[in-house]
Amino acid sequence: MKNQHFILALLAFVFMGCTSSVNETDLQHLNGYWEIEKVVMKDGKEVDFKINTIYDYFEMDQNRKGFYKKVTPQADGTFLTDDFREEVEVIVKDKDFYIQFFTQFDTVEVRLEKLTDKQLIYENQDEKTYIYKRAEPINLIP
Q1: Spatial contact of 58 and 30, defined as CB atoms under 8 Å apart
Q2: Which end of the chain has the lower number of beta carbons within 10 A, N or C?
Q3: Above 80 in pLDDT, residue 64?
Q4: Model-level pTM?
Q5: CB-based contact 102:110 (threshold 8 Å)
Q6: pLDDT tens digit string along 76-102?
Q7: CA angle at residue 120 from 60 to 136, to 5 degrees?
Q8: Is 54 helix (H, G, I), strand (E, B) or coil?
Q9: What is d(CA 70, CA 56) in angstroms, rounded to the nearest whole number?
Q10: Does the residue 82 lie in any domain?
Q11: DSSP string, 94-123
């Protein structure tokens, strides 16, 4: 009997670990600057990013539509940007939230795994998991 309880608990834990923990109210946290911390490959290998010269920036409206772009933090607390940006939309599929990136050549989807005011985690179609932390402007000039 104890083995059955253990197996049920283990299955429940595994099932919970495979589902997205993002809900509708979490989507408000997507707006802003994000700095990549690491990428976890399908086989479990990790690539750490210790120093980042480029941040990701999202700006979404109430309809879950907006844009994404790369920005470069400057020493005075500003960001260097260019005119390149990708349109994005957050959609729901099978109770999970996805970000769709609309590029000139394709549409790419990533599944949101976690989204808080401090952390963004998503998985792409190649089963690579991207882990970001909230980025703040760098101001080294008084």
Answers
A1: yes
A2: C
A3: yes
A4: 0.82
A5: no
A6: 989 999 889 999 999 999 999 999 999
A7: 75
A8: coil
A9: 5
A10: yes
A11: TTEEEEEEE-SS-EEEEEEEEE-SSEEEEE
Query: Has residue 71 been placed in a domain?
Result: yes
Contact 32, 14 (CB under 8 A): no
Give CA–CA dist 55/79, Å, rounded: 9
Strand ranges for the chain from DSSP E: 32-40, 46-48, 55-60, 65-73, 79-80, 86-93, 96-102, 107-115, 119-123, 129-134
Q: Which residues lie closer than 8 Å to 33 by C-beta, 6 or more apart?
A: 55, 56, 57, 71, 79, 134, 135, 136, 137
Structural domain for 48, as ranges = 20-134
Q: Would you say residue 141 lies in a domain?
A: no
Sign of the Cα torsion 23, 26, 31, 36 reads: negative
Count of domains in the chain?
A: 1
The DSSP H or E segment spanning 31 is none
